[in-house]
Amino acid sequence: MSTIQTNNAVPDKSGKPVLRLDRICLKFGDKRVLNGIDLSVVEGEVVVLIGASGSGKTSLLRCINLLNVPSSGSIVIDEETLFDRQVDGKGAQIPVPEVNRIRSKTGMVFQQFNLFPHMTALENVMEGPVIVKREPKEQARQKALQLLDLMGLAQHVEKYPRQLSGGQQQRVAIARAMAMQPKVMLFDEPTSALDPELVGEVMKAMVELAKSGMTMVIVTHELGFAFEVADRVVFLDQGLVAEQGPPARILLHPEHPRLKTFVGRFHESADLLRPFLEAREAGKTC
Amino acid sequence: MFDYTVITNNIGLLWQGLLMTLYFTVITIGAGMLIGLFIGLIQLSTFKPLVILGQIYVEFFRNIPLLVTLLWVYYAFPIFAGINVTKFWAGFIGLSCYVGSFYAEILRAGVQSVDPGQIDAATAIGMSYGQRMRRIILPQAFRKMIPPLAGQSIIQMKNTTLLSMITVPDLLYQASYISSFTYRPMEVYTAVGVIFLIILVPLTLLSRKLEKSGASAR
To answer: Of A86, A85, A26, which Cα lies nearest the Cα of A57?
Structure first.
């Protein structure tokens, strides 16, 4: 709960790094997906990863908690080394139980929610604390109820995932990840699988998290959200960080030619809509 | 045409045979499940040699006719191993190993049919391999495994009739014994068929019902 209770405090964004990736390379068979990515995220920072499909943003996110195991590079989370392998294969061997422990300092939210279908919303949220952290059931229950309440799901705690809408499921998923009291939250296109009218409620929950000072790394196509919430936008291209900086600069004054095209496409679609919006404002719609 | 007195006069023998059949069905399904769990998990491990070992086991017992396995365990195995194997042990070992190979495949297929996103989610909250299996994967896989498990177990009960070939006094053995002195095989084997129907049809219906409730629990 500590992460939530700092609600109105202004996050200190020059703090210590929570996450440090060094020269991350990732191969799927012969295909090179990531080609040496450096990324450091400080406490309370909200980083949004953007890029065309196939640029490696989801792969990078999945490397952070070793759902994808990099071919080389190093990962440090909260000053503990999760992964370390040099290009020549040397490096620190982290024992599996240690990996599991350090990994649980990250919380992940998936595009397809991936809630456990055989458990209620409440059980989904309690699962990590009870099974992994071995917290007493009653304590975990109280904490889970509080988190679900924060996500606006107080009336749905006893429901199974299939009884919930996509937006509700995704908010349960956020609560489930938060229940492990992570140092950093990872979001993998959390609104891409949602019906348009449900996107807002999930984004609102994420904005609340960001305001509470949670460190977040988010892969998303919602550039408007990136513009509003991100402290830093990172543009990936061909498995490399092509450009990064504050959202206003990246999204409004891109320099990298590919980023220009990428952002341009979004501006184009906005331009296409403009006449309709203006017409409606002028009251000329039928 | 049918002489029912053949059945009623020898009901005691048929009863003994039925008990033997049920006994072997239950114990070989039980042992087969343990073997299947073990071999299935071996096949699901990430250690290649273990996976191959599991595959060899499955293909070996799945592709040799059960009758050959039973005869081999009873007649040939004692000679090679230099030990005495009773017909009960031979029947138990042969039938259990055979059904175990099918159960292993059902378990493997069931686990592999669980959405990989479930493994991602369980891993992401820091679960170990054992915790993922026990808490997340197997509970979901078992629901999908109910229909094929029930089907294989029903086949197993029918397969126990092969025990008569190694002179275990099961239902079929008793039937052939009765017909050998009554000369009325038609009545006797019909009775055996009816007994299997009476036992297995309700079980089939039950497994259908379980399948439905398993589907709605998802």
So the answer is: A26
